[in-house]
Amino acid sequence: MEIAAQKGKKQPGLNDLLEEVERLHQRHAELNTRIEKLNAAEEIDRDEVFERVLSDYRNELQSLAAKLAKKKAILEQNLAAHEQERKKLAHDIRKTEEFLKEAKIRHIAGEYDDAKYQGIQEKYGAQLSTMKKRAASLEAVAKRLKAFTTLDAAAPPGEEAPPAPAEKRTKGEEKPRVVMDDDEFDLDDEDLPAPPPPGDLPEDLP
Asked: pTM for the complete prediction?
């Protein structure tokens, strides 16, 4: 029963990951502010109690920096996957637009009758609309990803930022994944419209 429950558990999606990164950055900024206030305070003795509190903040800040480094590695991989798909979509959109334009010219010239031209317009016009919606959604997600990947979690004063951990990737032709200790994030962006079937792109006109 336990194994079945684990298999049915839904992995966090892209939006969940972005929300977690945002939350970690907010906490990181909050801890930095607290450390700066303590370092600037003149009315507090720098005794054992003071150092213990300061050390607590610094230790948590260092832990957050390590977590953010892992999340940033996932975001960068996801951004690369989005960029690759956006390039392919741009090529497919251009190809479909040229196909529709050529069909229009052949219809005007009288080579295609109204029925054939209308069929081409309906089929590939709908496909073009789907691809453009997908491209717009990918553009929006890419902007959000870039905003998060450029955020920098600086180390606390006097501390050195931990190195970014190495990525682990699954083998084979599966969808991109990054496994980090006990956490696994699925890089699917489930809210985006599905791309058109790759085998249904227009070929040369007959």
From this structure: 0.53
